[in-house]
From TrEMBL:
<keyword id="KW-0560">Oxidoreductase</keyword>
<protein>
    <recommendedName>
        <fullName>Glucose-6-phosphate 1-dehydrogenase</fullName>
        <ecNumber>1.1.1.49</ecNumber>
    </recommendedName>
</protein>
<dbReference type="GO" id="GO:0009051">
    <property type="term" value="P:pentose-phosphate shunt, oxidative branch"/>
</dbReference>
<dbReference type="InterPro" id="IPR022674">
    <property type="entry name" value="G6P_DH_NAD-bd"/>
</dbReference>
<keyword id="KW-0119">Carbohydrate metabolism</keyword>
<keyword id="KW-0521">NADP</keyword>
<keyword id="KW-0313">Glucose metabolism</keyword>
<comment type="pathway">
    <text>Carbohydrate degradation; pentose phosphate pathway; D-ribulose 5-phosphate from D-glucose 6-phosphate (oxidative stage): step 1/3.</text>
</comment>
<feature type="domain" description="Glucose-6-phosphate dehydrogenase NAD-binding">
    <location>
        <begin position="9"/>
        <end position="197"/>
    </location>
</feature>
<dbReference type="InterPro" id="IPR019796">
    <property type="entry name" value="G6P_DH_AS"/>
</dbReference>
<dbReference type="Pfam" id="PF02781">
    <property type="entry name" value="G6PD_C"/>
</dbReference>
<dbReference type="InterPro" id="IPR022675">
    <property type="entry name" value="G6P_DH_C"/>
</dbReference>
<dbReference type="GO" id="GO:0004345">
    <property type="term" value="F:glucose-6-phosphate dehydrogenase activity"/>
</dbReference>
<dbReference type="InterPro" id="IPR001282">
    <property type="entry name" value="G6P_DH"/>
</dbReference>
<comment type="function">
    <text>Catalyzes the rate-limiting step of the oxidative pentose-phosphate pathway, which represents a route for the dissimilation of carbohydrates besides glycolysis.</text>
</comment>
<dbReference type="Pfam" id="PF00479">
    <property type="entry name" value="G6PD_N"/>
</dbReference>
<dbReference type="GO" id="GO:0006006">
    <property type="term" value="P:glucose metabolic process"/>
</dbReference>
Amino acid sequence: IQGGFLTVVVLGASGDLAKKKTFPALFNLFKQGFLPSDSVQIIGYARSKLSNDDLRQKIVGYLKAEKNALQDGESVTKKFLNLISYVSGAYDSKEGFVQLDKAIQSVESVENEGPDSSRSTRRLFYLALPPSVYPQVSKMVHENCMNKHGWTRVIVEKPFGKDLSSAEELSKQLGELFTEDQLYRIDHYLGKEIVQNLLVMRFANRFFIPIWNRDNISNVQIVFRENFGTEGRGGYFDEYGIIRDIIQNHLLQVLCLVAMEKPVSVNPEDIRDEKVKVLKAVEPIRDEDVVIGQYEGYKDDPTVPDDSNTPTFATVVLRINNERWDGVPFIIKAGKALDGRKAEIRVQFKDVPGDIFKCNKKGRNEFVMRLQPSEAMYMKLTVKQPGLEMGGTQSELDLSYGERYKDVVIPEAYERLLLDTIRGDQQHFVRRDELKVAWEIFTPLLHRIECGKIKCLTYPQGSRGPPEADALAQRAGYNRTYGY
Ligand code: BG6
């Protein structure tokens, strides 16, 4: 990557997110030559008193677990670890951040032939931290660590607030410190291969352009299932719940890409303008369009209160009031401790008019995009039953990435998004106004759940979730002749 010496500062370096996602993503970029040793350094910052080696030890296990390790993995890992150093300090300590700035300056000056060098430098701050400390940490970064010889960029992780007013408050605080082009709000679903493919698939194929609308599409399902529960994150999770954890961000972003109009160009601002427009057309959510659930045993976690009404499962039907989508329900479903791990988009088409082959009762046309596991896109359609008979049967046109793109290594979401940040491409990041509308959509519902107006149904671990959710999807028009 061109553009001067780069320092990546990982704030919250000893935390879970940094160990599991941030450092491994940096490692993958390093392995592929995107972070050359002579022009990059990585500094971890956290409260724990650690030496450089302690931090390296903490992350090495996660690096080794990375897929696609190179043949000479050991020495590559070593070289990567050598780029990492550590500064310890509190998140509200001026002294800590002054130290951090000194550490950055010193790596910049060693690598950059003196602090007065005319070569520009780049500083990327990754806030792998709980949102409660964002305001103080960003203030500290702003007061003590801004780059005077090039750009400063800041990556923030969700949750961006808990509802509209807290999100607006956070946006205001961050907005006073950094400009919008310095802020990168990560939603890692935007870094997934199939999600990134959505716009290309929709707008670069003549097939899809004329049929992608209310005349042909009956309903759209966007589904996220996990086959494990909150796994020790109960305390965090109980404050947020599945709607804030998955739906208001990840699945809503996917909905935007499925439903938005064609942007005038692939410029990030043009794309995000269209996303905001479609979000603004989402109607207020009605109680009868919601089923929430909590898996049995969720409250066994000692950090979860006994009277918790926090959903670990939700099905919400969203309705978009515009010319393209009026009358087409978007069934959004997410749950933990379900019967499998999968994320997919199912676009279900209407029945065939004048059904001479009696194919409608066998199942509808569907276009399915599987985000994970094993990326795939396939079309469910009716073909002649091969052989002597003339009847129709259901089959698939299948593009499974593992088969078709055998030699391509699909990058991890965080890896792509980090590279985008370094390159200054905000297309796959959430803009402030997008975030605001996303909260406008869900805040009234979240408040109704919090005051107990809508109650969680319980469901057994390893199940499909409450049967009422399937009934809701069916009421909304989803025909489950086959499929999930
Ligand atoms: C995170 C949520 O944002 O996404 C987790 O906080 C969830 O609860 C995770 O498990 C799912 O991400 P992925 O990429 O595994 O689908």
